[in-house]
Amino acid sequence: MKYKSNASWARIVRQVSLLLLLALFLSNQQSPQHIPPFIFPELDQPVVSLWLAATANDSAQTRAQLKEVKRQWQIHKADVEDFPLTVCNPYLIGGTIDALLVQMQRAQAVPDYDELTGLSYHFLWEFKTVRAFHRQNYYPLDAWWDVYNLHQEISFATHDPELGLLEWQELECMFDEFVCLLEEYEAKAEANLTRYAPRVDEDAHKDAMNRIYVCINDYKQALTTGYRDRLLTPCEEIAAGLKLILTCYTKEGVTL
Length: 256
What we know:
Blueprint: H1 6-14, H2 18-27, H3 41-55, H4 59-81, H5 90-109, H6 113-133, H7 140-159, H8 168-196, H9 202-223, H10 232-247
Helix pairs in contact: 1-6, 2-6, 3-4, 3-6, 4-5, 5-6, 7-8, 7-10, 8-9, 9-10
């Protein structure tokens, strides 16, 4: 797996819209009213596929998936802009997504896969953040990104000869937190996968979860040795396992 540097993710963070930063402030000033789930599985599906294709530097798939993202956005744009949100303006979200799609098209044309990966993540992040502001914390895909982002930090430390300036015990604590987040993701998936991600193959998803727990046990065992080099292989296997789980959310699904 090609590991993305902290600099790459820092660039993504800088792309966060001012709209959602303002919404964060507003959400702390009032309790959002109950609204329907701000979830669009048909839109998430091709964006996830685009992210996976971009991380794999797959030119044909990035082109095909970006085309599908744009098609699905045209289908769902009016629904997004008319959504009864209480802490942000849905029309501004629509404008943000329109701008992201322009940037995605430019990145795909180069192609700049790192940029396209970041933009795909930003696209999904916009919706994830709106759900967080409205306390809709039940969508499994949102929990997956929390797991993945923490694993990025673990992977950075694992591959750094200086352990990312962490003490060994700090890495152990970070990994324990990662396992807890993964268990939270699994609980949300078991409770809500059928409702909010109906096209996911549940059997394939369960198999992917079982596989990643094997990788986790390997990493835990390597941690007991105190040797960083023994962490590398299980860390890469966990990364591959996380992508396998995410692939269950795509139209193509996954064959195990």
